[in-house]
Write a structure and sequence with these properties.
alpha/beta, 8-stranded parallel β-barrel, 12 helices, single chain, 305 residues, 8 strands, globular, TIM Barrel
């Protein structure tokens, strides 16, 4: 029997660079991906909300994913985001991911429909049966309207393809539930300000938008906690990262902040697709200051060992 795919390390839900006219800038995408892989991230997620999937058609998402797989060229796993309101769109993305050589799927609850656990499980299992690829579930009730509850987990957890869950509920009791009652489903941190707690409860991976522009610092926290088991060092790194997490989450400017963060590191990610708008000057200055302090502080912590 084929062993389950192991999710271990930092997985970056990569941004989608656009030109001024909102067309895709694949040259900038290559620069972002090469930088991330060179920094040592362990996997790339294409077509997530950090990549502005909500503002793209299915065909556009497939085109971006195809280019991502081509650029990555097997250097790290590529996970295909399949989240969509229409189940048929999620299925098309999953099958497209399989056809182009993606390594795994990220499968979320269809937003707005508010399905029961049974309905949600049957939807996930239909995608699983059709695509037959490793799956990381994505629990984000703040956007989807419902939790992936215990009935859902019991049903989908029987499939060998269901390997992991990106847990983004923000409820620490969900971390306890997953760690204690569903150890066969690898727990991945999807709530950045709880990364330390996830690692303490056995998570081995972290899906983090901020790693688009600060891969070294996110890798430092993962290494301290998940590799070295040095939670004293981990707490100091986490403390240094908290101002960034506050900036990223305040006022609904997450995607804009991530893209500007990448631009600050020398790769212009271009326009933000509507309905979102780019950061204003004050927001940009605040983010720049937070990045400067964070990088300096974590570099000093790393030097101390």
């Amino acid at each position: 029997m084929t062993p389950k795919m192991e999710f271990n390390g930092i997985y970056t839900p990569v941004v989608t660079p656009f030109n001024a006219d909102y067309t895709h800038d694949f040259g900038a995408l290559q620069a972002v991906l090469d930088h991330l892989i060179g920094a040592g991230v362990h996997g790339i997620i294409t077509g997530g909300s950090t990549g502005e999937n909500y503002a793209m058609t299915v065909d556009e998402r497939l085109a971006v994913a195809r280019e991502t797989v081509r650029i990555v060229a097997g250097r790290v796993p590529v996970i295909m985001g399949t989240g969509a309101m229409l189940p048929a769109d999620s299925m098309a993305l999953a099958l497209g991911g399989k056809e182009m050589g993606a390594d795994a799927l990220l499968v979320a609850t269809p937003p707005y429909a508010v399905p029961t656990d049974r309905e949600n499980a049957l939807n996930t299992l239909a995608i699983d049966k059709a695509a037959d690829l490793p799956i990381m579930l994505y629990n984000y009730p703040g956007r989807m309207g419902v939790n992936m509850g215990e009935e859902f987990l019991d049903r989908v957890g029987r499939s060998r393809n269901v390997c992991a869950i990106k847990e983004s509920s923000g409820d620490i009791n969900r971390v306890h539930l997953l760690a204690r009652d569903y150890p066969h489903i690898q727990m991945s941190c999807g709530m950045d300000d709880q990364a330390l707690e996830f690692f303490a409860w056995g998570a081995r991976s972290w899906v983090c938008g901020g790693s688009n522009f600060l891969p070294d610092e996110h890798l430092a926290l993962w290494r301290a906690c998940a590799v070295e088991g040095n939670f004293d060092k981990g707490r100091r790194i986490m403390s240094a990262m908290m101002p960034l997490m506050r900036v990223l989450e305040q006022g609904g400017k997450f995607v804009q902040s991530i893209k500007y963060g990448v631009t600050c590191q020398g790769i212009d990610t271009g326009a933000i697709r509507p309905p979102l708008k780019a950061l204003n000057k004050d927001d940009k200055r605040a983010l720049e200051q937070v990045i400067r302090v964070l990088k300096t502080t974590i570099a000093a912590i790393e030097q101390e060992g």
